[in-house]
Amino acid sequence: MTESTYRIQGATGEWEVVIGLEVHAQVTSHAKLFSGASTTFGAEPNAQVSLVDAAMPGMLPVPNGECVRQAVRTGMALNAQINRYSRFDRKNYFYADLPQGYQISQLYHPIVGEGGIEISLDEKNPDAQTKTIGIERLHLEQDAGKLMHDQHPTMSYVDLNRCGVALMEIVSRPDMRSPAEAGAYLKKLRTILRYVGSCDGNMEEGSMRADVNVSVRKPGDEFGTRTETKNVNSVRYVMATIEHEANRQVDVLESGGTIVQETRLYDPDKNETRSMRSKEDAHDYRYFPDPDLLPLELDDAFLDACKESLPELPDAKRKRYESELGLSAYNAAVLTAEAETARWFEALLAESAKAQGKPEADVAKASANWLLSELYGALNRMGKTIDESPVSPAAGAELVALVADGTISGTIAKQVFEIMLETGDGAGKIVEERGLKQTSDTGAIDAAIAKVLADNADKVEQYRSGKEALFGFFVGQTMKAMQGKANPQMVNEQLKKVLN
Amino acid sequence: MTELTDLGIADIRNGVRAGTFSAREVATAFNARVAEAKALNAFMIDTPDHALAAADAIDAKRAAGEDLPIMAGVPIGMKDLFCTVGVEARAASEILNGFKPTYESTVSQKLWDAGAGMLGKLNMDQFAMGSSNETSAFGNVISPWRRNDGSNAPLAPGGSSGGSSAAISARLCPGATGTDTGGSIRQPAAFTGISGIKPTYGRCSRWGVIAFASSLDQAGPMARDVRDCAIMLEAMSGFDPKDSTSLDLAVPNWEAGLSSDLKGKRVGIPKEYRMDGMNADVAAVWDKAADWLRDAGAEIVEVSLPHTRYALPAYYIIAPAEASSNLARYDGVRYGQRTLPDGAGLQDMYAATRAAGFGAEVRRRIMIGTYVLSAGFYDAYYTQAQKVRALIARDFAQVWDHCDVLLAPTAPSAAFGLGENSEDPIAMYLNDVFAVPASLAGLPAMSVPGGLDSQGLPLGLQIIGKPLDEQGVLNAGLAIEERAGFTARPAQWW
Predict the structure, then answer these.
(1) What is the pLDDT of residue A2?
(2) CB B298 within 8 A of CB B267
């Protein structure tokens, strides 16, 4: 466990920041939490609204089992207690985005209880500087609709497509002490959700948003009064919100003021938070158990099936990559940070093992290195994600295998990869057609060496009189003369023979 | 030959099946009867074409030699709380003015599937909140019954299903749907000398029924006798995946199971229901009913339901709490009435719409419900009421060790005059004192006529049964019916 040293330097000394996050994650499901309406993003306004969502008279909610399953799986992935008995409550308030006049949520008996997430603050060394952030609870609730204020000069429009979509509200303990910790928590949570497949984690489309609770205190003091900044929709903004809000609170306190418990909004354009409403005009939500719904009672068979369906989670995968595949901690961390990357890597690994006829552990390092340097580099240049890679894992494995068995050198491999990207051809075909095979023909190599040494007689002289660093120069010249196709190991051996 | 409109559900169905008369003849006769009974104000909307179309479909089936379903050719009245396609559904409230559902409630669909047709939408207490039908925004229903003192004072048909009870007792329809949240089927049945059963909570789907208090609302049939109730209950019941509280159980053939032989059965008389200052006529008919049931072979035992006196206060916390939330959707945005004062913002529109659209009793209950759910009051009221509810359910669960059904009065008195209780909400609420405990426990309960009081008005007897034992309730009701020989009917003055 690492203690954060993040402090705000105030006029009266150092201040510590205390952060808790409430993350709303949209459950991946074709239908809404209590109605059969679709949840696809980007449909025409009000095209995905059922009679239940529009709160027509006499309509009743029916829980969507898939949403319940996803919440339970997520809870399991967060090492959290799964509550076999949970219940839905109504949160009552009037607003145009809420046709029922209440949101169905879970206040008193959430489906998931205490859990935790381990975060690391050092990307290079994920086993150092770790810290566990407590999860207080995870509950299911309905999303509200969306108001559109830019459609008409004097009226607001309502789009109910999102109304009734299932959200998981994941509430952390106030365990974070710096913007970096909050950022790491949010990223790790997103990674876990994506691994589990319970939320796509797409913050731009609003499928994951955070309410940021911030307070400040002198180190060792009791918690200060907190503010809650609502609906922050990127990791960067969450970190900026914390930084801004903590500094604002320190300024207020140091100038003799007090912090008001209130709801605030983050304005990314101005990079500041603004008051939205204070506790005094907070709603009385009149929570009570929803009488239209029976309590959720989960049996062993359901829980076992949820457990069975869980994939290997990122931390376990990372550790396995290190211990079983012999990857460096850093490479293992990068490869497992996103489920898509790990999936791609594992496909590459399987293909490589097949192509080379070796165990995965023997081909893992080369495969990982190629993915992280060559493929990542190319994808970055093209602005593509790994799922959009123009090269398949099998095609990558073919290339890696050609290097591994000495058919081509690493340098040629880079060229071949570029051609693969341009033409879509396979590595073997390219090497064959363009004659890029590495040569181990000692006659040709010896001839090239002889020519290089003859052309650089002065350097040969210098080398022989002790300037051994020039060896690399001769290797380079020879390789160049051979257009990169010479087996570098043979070039080395032959050069040594001739020079010494 | 008897007038077609004097026939009940079983007789109509049997006659249509046998070809004694056609379904169209029946529908035509009842349509005419409805049309000439405007003075009762029982029907808010007449739908003669619906009744005729359903009848024609049945006649065509018969002509084609097909088997006819259990309510073949029976035209019924539909309480305005049920949504039916294309026909305004207002829950007798201004706030739903103009609302024509595009969907059919599960219960009404089942009735149509069983061969019934709709004569019209029946008046009721607004949002089913009331015991006299005086809270309807569309005028009181007037009971067809009159006292024998010659005063002709208009009487309440009971509530909230008062349009249903008045229409059946006036022979405007052989049966009608009711809903019962805290007595809304049983009390009006008692007031008008007809039968009505509220089944076990969850037997009838609530989907498409405008909600009052979700944990209590339960639809059920109202008809002239026990057999008709059994037939119509079978048509209305059944699991509905669209209602999470619906019971996933097979629907018994209650009609086939009817038997008034109660040998080996024990009937409990709950001593807490015998209250100080009880109406003498009510007490007398209750005692007589015990004798009838003994005569039918049952053993009569005195039992105790110790928490009975807390039922009414608990009910008037739980039902308004749920209602305050269930009725939040009537905001003037998507359907029904909208009141938009000049320059009004969103919250102003909500307030103006709801103030204008809801009647006084509905507003009162929304305010009570809002209050008992408020921060700081929730535990003292709502939580406490839920505990009471659990204790009441436990009282019943324990009493089944000693008896099979319970016998009690349905209401503390016969029908009262319109206006007599309307100034005092508590006096009005006390009408439900015998009905509410079974509602809180979700038990099947029915009212059957027991006789007339000294003013010549019907008195109802209530049978409460074990969960899912509608058969036991119906059978005890049948035993009373056979011995009570209740044949009184209101003289036609309308």
Answers:
(1) 66
(2) yes
Q: Classify the phi-psi angles of A122: left when phi > 0, otherwise alpha if psi is within -120 to 50, otherwise beta.
A: beta
Residue B248 has pLDDT above 60, yes or no: yes
> Could you report the per-residue pLDDT of B20-48, keeping only the tens digit for each?
999 999 999 999 999 999 999 999 999 99
Work out the mean pLDDT of chain B and round it to a whole number: 97
The answer to whether the Cβ–Cβ distance between B328 and A284 falls below 8 Å is no
| Record: contact B215-A61, CB cut-off 8 A | no
Here the CATH number for the domain that contains residue B290 is 3.90.1300.10
Chain B residue nearest residue A35, CA to CA: B242
Give the residue ranges of DSSP H helices in A309-441: 314-323, 329-336, 339-356, 360-369, 376-382, 393-404, 410-423, 427-433
Residues of B with Cβ-Cβ distance to A63 under 8 angstroms: 244
Mention every residue, 6+ apart, whose C-beta is less than 8 A from residue B485.
none
**Number of structural domains, chain B?**
1
Phi, psi for residue A277 in degrees, rounded to 5: -160, 150
Given a cut of 80, is residue B64 above it in pLDDT? yes
User: Which residues 50-109 on chain A approach chain B with CB closer than 8 angstroms?
Assistant: 51, 54-63, 90, 92, 94-96, 99-102
Task: Find, in chain B, the residue whose alpha carbon is nearest to that of A289.
Answer: B322
Q: Name residue A473's amino acid.
A: F
Question: Which residues of chain A fall short of a pLDDT of 70?
Answer: 1-2, 278-282
pLDDT at B273: 95
Q: Residue A236 has which token pair?
A: 């960067």
Query: How many CB atoms are located within 10 Å of the residue B185 CB?
Result: 35
How large is the average pLDDT for residues B184-204?
98
* Catalytic residue list contains B79: yes
Q: Which domain holds residue B303?
A: 1-494
pLDDT band at B380 (very low <50, low <70, confident <90, very high): very high
Instruction: Closest CB to A294: pick one of B101, B245, B370.
Output: B245
Q: Is A282 on the interface with B (CB under 8 A)?
A: no
Give yes or no for a cis peptide into B160 (omega within 30° of 0). Answer: yes
Q: Name every chain B residue with its beta carbon within 8 A of the beta carbon of A51.
A: 102-103
User: Residue A300: what pLDDT?
Assistant: 97
B81–chain A nearest CA distance, Å: 9
| Residue-averaged pLDDT of chain A | 92
* CB pair distance less than 8 Å for B375 and A288: no
For residue A97, give how far its alpha carbon lies from the nearest alpha carbon of chain B (Å). Answer: 11
Other Cβ atoms within 10 Å of B277 Cβ, number:
6
Chain A residue numbers with beta carbons less than 8 Å from the beta carbon of B378 are: 286-288
Min Cα distance A191 → chain B (Å) is 34
CB nearest B244 (choices: A59, A63, A102): A63
Q: Look at the alpha carbons of B286, B292, B294, B299 in this order and tell me if their dihedral is positive or negative.
A: negative
* Mean pLDDT in residue range B238-267: 98
Q: Has residue B335 got a pLDDT over 90?
A: yes
- The contacts of residue A423 (CB under 8 Å, 6+ apart) are A430
The amino acid at residue B123 is N
Task: Name residues 222-261 of chain B within 8 A of A (Cβ).
Answer: 241-245
